[in-house]
Structures are given as structure tokens and as C-alpha cells.
Amino acid sequence: MRVVVAVVATLLVTACSTAPRAAVTPADGEPVQLRALRGYEIVTLHVIPQPGLEAGTQVVAGAPLGSVQPLPETLSGRYQSAIESADARYDAQEYEEALAAIDPAYQDEPENPFVIEVYARTLYRMGRRVESFEPYRKLVALLDAQRLTIPGAGPRSVVIDAWFADAYWKLGTLYMDRAEYDKAAFEISRCLATGRSMPAALTDQAYSYLTKAHYHLGDYATAEALGRLTLRHNPDNQYVRPFLEDMRTR
């Protein structure tokens, strides 16, 4: 039997192991890259908590929540081999074959999050980003629905499922494509809040997108802090400089 761990925190860990501690704003101790999650109670799923960390514990920014639980050995009773085949094809960069392998499972098990993730990820990697949006949106909605099964979770609770950090990231980038900046910032922040390790280039992109999103939302203080964080992380970043230049004149 698989055990689901829910760790509720009102202050989150920093974005990832490579995130500079300078990202924390001195006013409230909140990591600036998680500003879109302000005011929510966070329910982190599929995390093996640090010893002594129980549900309801307030976690200081920068403190680890724990390690991610291993995925179940069986992701689908009927389509396990299809998932494995699609993943193997994906890893071999044979994306058309990967999509063909997972499509029957997606049609037959439209509520299986592991199937949806493979299907959406493959479309996204093929450059079919518009088509990947609805599967990713549906996947994250399914993850959010887990809140209803968690004792003590309320209307201001936000689920962050550590198994699906990449799905939050991809959906966030798709919201960026659609100029839905509030939703983009929210999903990208959820990805960062999982604490999963990210390559430096991806962290740079995440900070850059958050800078742009908060800029367009009119939250210039957060956008400026994020832009400066981005440049500390990567001094050669050119994406955020126009936003920082514009904010200097405001």
C-alpha cells in the first residue's frame, strides 16, 4: 500500500538547492521567487518529511521539507508497458513513436496523472505546445483535487505534488505563452517550491519568467527583486534587463 505524505507549511523552502539565499526578502522572510504563493497554506504531497516535521509545522524559508518519495512501481494496471515504452522512446528522442505508444493509454485512462504527464510532456517536447496546454491544465487540476482528500486542508490550501514538479513548470511556461501572467507566476512558483533540483539554465529561465510575469502584473517591487536575483544567478542574462531599465524610470 502506498503511503501519501502531506506536509503543511505556511512558509516554504527556497526554490531549489542552487537558489541564492539573497532571494529572501528581509521584510517578511519570504523567498521572492515564491511571492505568487503568498497567503496560501501549502500542502506538499509525496515528500518524506525530515525527522520531527509533522503536518501543520511552520517551516522557515530555506529549511528542507524532506526527500521526494519514489514513484509507485506500477503507474497503470493496463498500460504499464505503454508508459515504459513511451518513456524509452522519449529518452531516445523518438517523439513521434513515444506519442504513438502513449496515445491509447491517454484515450483509455484520461484520469491517470502518470499517463497524462507522459502524453503532455511528449507533445510539449515535439513543439506542439498549444496542444499540450489542455493535458497539462487537466493534469494540474487533478493534482489540485487531491486537496479534498487531505484532512485539515481548506479553501486557502494549495497542493504542491513533488512528483509533478515538471508539470507545474511546463504549465507555467504555457501560461506565459498566453500572457496569463498571474497563472504563469503561480505555476512556476509551485514548481520551484517543490525543492526539486533544477539545472542552472532552467533556474535562470524560471527567474526570468517570474520577473516578466510580476512586471506585467504591476508588482514592480517583486519584479525588480526577481530581476536582480536573476542577474546574481546569471550576470549575462539579457532577458530581464529591459524590465529593470524600465522600472528605473517609474
Distance between the termini: 57 Å
Count of individual helical segments = 9
Q: How do the strands of the widest beta sheet line up side by side?
A: 1-2-5
> Could you tell me the strand content as a percent range?
5-15%
Number of strands: 5
Mind telling me which CATH architecture of the domain at 79-145 this is? Alpha Horseshoe
Main CATH class of the domain at 79-145: Mainly Alpha
* Rg value: 18 Å
Low-confidence stretches: 1-29
Proportion of helical residues: 40-55%
Main beta sheet: 3 strands, mixed
Taken in chain order, the helices and strands follow as EEEEHHHHEHHHHH
Helix and strand content put the structural class at: mainly alpha
Mean pLDDT: 85
Cα shape: globular
Describe the structure.
- The chain is built from nine helices and five strands; from the N terminus they run ββββααααβααααα.
- With 250 residues, it is mainly alpha-helical.
- Helix 5 runs antiparallel to helix 6.
- It is globular and about 60 Å long.
- The N terminus is likely disordered.
Topology:
Layout lengths: L5 E4 L31 E5 L1 E3 L16 E3 L11 H12 L3 H14 L4 H13 L3 H17 L11 E5 L3 H13 L3 H13 L6 H17 L3 H14 L7 H8 L2
Parallel strand pairs: 2-5
Antiparallel strand pairs: 1-2, 3-4
Concise overview:
The chain is mainly α. Among the domains are: 79-145, Serine Threonine Protein Phosphatase 5, Tetratricopeptide repeat, CATH 1.25.40; 198-249.
List keywords for this structure.
Serine Threonine Protein Phosphatase 5, Tetratricopeptide repeat; disordered N terminus; 250 residues; mainly alpha
